Amino acid sequence: MSNDIPFPSNLAPDEASPDWLNKGDNAWQLTAATLVGLQSIPGLMILYGGGVKKKWAVNSAFMVVYAFACVLFCWVTWGYRMSFGSTLLPFWGTANVALDQRYLLDQAFLGMFPNATMVYFQSVFAAITLILIAGAVLGRMNFYAWMMFVPLWLTFSYTFTAFSVWCPNGFLFKMGLIDYSGGYVIHLSSGVAGYTAAFWVGPRLTKDRERFPPNNVILMLFGAGMLWMGWTGFNGGDPYVVSTDASLAVLNTHICTATSLLTWVGLDIVFFRKASVIGAVQGMITGLVCITPAAGVVQGWAAIIMGLCSGSIPWITMMVIHKHSELLQKVDDTMAVLHTHAIAGSLGGILTGLFSKPNLNKLFSGDSAHFIGLFYGFDDKSRIGSGVRQIGVQILGIVFVVFVNVLSTSIICLLIQLVVPLRMTDEDMEIGDDAAHGEEAYAIWGNGDRHENSFYPGSVNPAIELPVTTKRTARRVEKT
């Protein structure tokens, strides 16, 4: 393969269905991309909005909406080609637009569908990565700082790992790192970057850290359900073909997730004598994350083992180690992305290096030369060295992703801090959504009037031209 992915030149403008186009693959790829998009909008938007205190519901959901829109814009204007274009550095591609008709309508570098489909598919993966980072800083990050963080992190962090791991020109891709659908690029990256950003942003108010109950558990569960079912496209779309391997990836995803959820709930019952809905959601997420780097390259029994591990090891790190570690408690990680994404993603990467089966790797990649799990290397004595090498590559990938994200996220946060504060003021954090956006999630008193301690009186509807409700009027209404 040449160093550069060639610019398209073989498509006639009037060829809507060229010979290389597989309509089934294209239809599935567009469907899978939309399923992944639904994980963010409305999945994580609802999960975050329902999983935080009422006063942060709007802000948390809005962070998701903004990140999704901003990433898609940046992706087509420069991000995609930096992640999947010609080589600038061994870990980074050359910036270029992905808007030209000749480029978008030509065949993608992988798959029997056009670049337009690939650009869309990869954009929703990039978007959900930023949205997962938001989970670590909910309840206190200055929204204007978040607006700056999203395009900067996409450009100077996500593109590094995406190019290195997924692009045929990337150095980890060439070494044979197995990351089926984003255990490294998405989950390890977002977990480490989120935790690093949480360190620089600072903690929530003390009373919010001590007690931060969901404002709507049913909505949170609905968002979690969207996340789980959307993962069918997340892992099922990454063979870039409608294949038996795609079917296996989907089934393994749900097997591992169900096992992980049951394991987490079981541990909650054993140690806390109560089954927690929030715990079930955490177990679901760790299962989804853990199976992601391995989805289509492991057997069903391995998916169950991975589910047992993802439902127990992150449980231990979150419920035991974190609670007894003063160092870990110094960082306020609102949605525990360190445990649910960084640790679960690393765990999945290592287990992939143990359980990946050579013939399944061949189904996925077409070449099993460097792709063999360590356990299968022990079974085939002639390939023990290849199995050991695979584990080494998987661990090297973890080290690289952690290093890149700690360094790049820290630099980005420090630069943003020179322009705007990373953290809202304590006074604004007391109020929440109303201070940040002048809006509230639920108005269930005074016919929709704002709470009396609001700094932002209700706005006038120009169609009705009613007067603004003042604090004094609100108090009179309340007394009446």
How does this model look, in words?
65% of the residues lie in helices and 1% in strands. It has 2 domains: 23-417, Ammonium transporter AmtB like domains (Ammonium transporter fold, Orthogonal Bundle); 447-480, no CATH class. The chain contains 20 helices and 2 strands. With 480 residues, it is mainly alpha-helical. The N and C termini lie far apart (78 Å). The protein has a two-stranded antiparallel sheet with strand order 1-2. The longest helix is centred in the last third of the chain and has 34 residues, at 384-417. It is globular, with a radius of gyration of 23 Å. It has helices at residues 23-51, 57-84, 101-104, 115-134, 143-166, 171-175, 183-201, 206-210, 217-236, 244-272, 277-291, 300-321, 326-329, 337-355, 358-365, 374-379, 384-417, 426-431, 433-437, 471-479, and strands at residues 87-89, 92-93. The model is unreliable at 450-480 (pLDDT under 50). GO terms for molecular function: ammonium channel activity. The chain crosses the membrane at residues 27-48, 60-80, 119-138, 145-166, 186-205, 217-234, 246-265, 277-295, 301-322, 334-355, 395-420.
Report a brief summary of the structure.
With 480 residues, the protein is an all-alpha fold.
